[in-house]
Amino acid sequence: MKKLLLSGFLLFSLIGAAMNESRNYSIVPVDGIEVSENWTEYTTVDGIKIEYKMTLCGGEKMRAQNQLLFRFTNTTDQELTISWITKEFRNGECWNCNRLDNPEYAHSLTIAGGQVLAGDGTSQENNDLFIFGNFIIHVHGMTEQTLTNFEFADLSVR
After folding, report:
1. pTM as predicted
2. What pairing do the DSSP bridges indicate for beta strands 62-74 and 130-135?
3. What residue spans define the domains of the chain?
4. 20 to 30 A Cα–Cα from 138, which one of 112, 129, 157, 158?
5. Which residues sit opposite 55 in a β-bridge?
């Protein structure tokens, strides 16, 4: 009986430790894109400043993951619309270059004069403000792909 109790205690201790370990997520480095709390300028085009940062995101409704967040700042006093097509490089290769005509990769934002729009990693509703980077913990059957670079193609402001 003591052996059974001891075995049960050890089993539950290991399960508890594993659960605690899975909650302490670490940010997985991304080749070519530094994980940072600071914004990095990508470019400024006709009054729209574009910045990005890779950060750990997650929550109750979202599996822990790295996301490349974007911040768009309209430096003018006029409303502007910015549009682009996102090229995603995963594991060092262009992942979507042969599908750039797919509407999934076309983006457009209208930004009021002086307004700042930024992804914050708490929502996946506005996919103009982020690109999925990679999952922190993989489960059986998941593809291990990592965002290693990105480009905005056909970038225009009107």
Report:
1. 0.75
2. antiparallel
3. 27-157
4. 129
5. 67
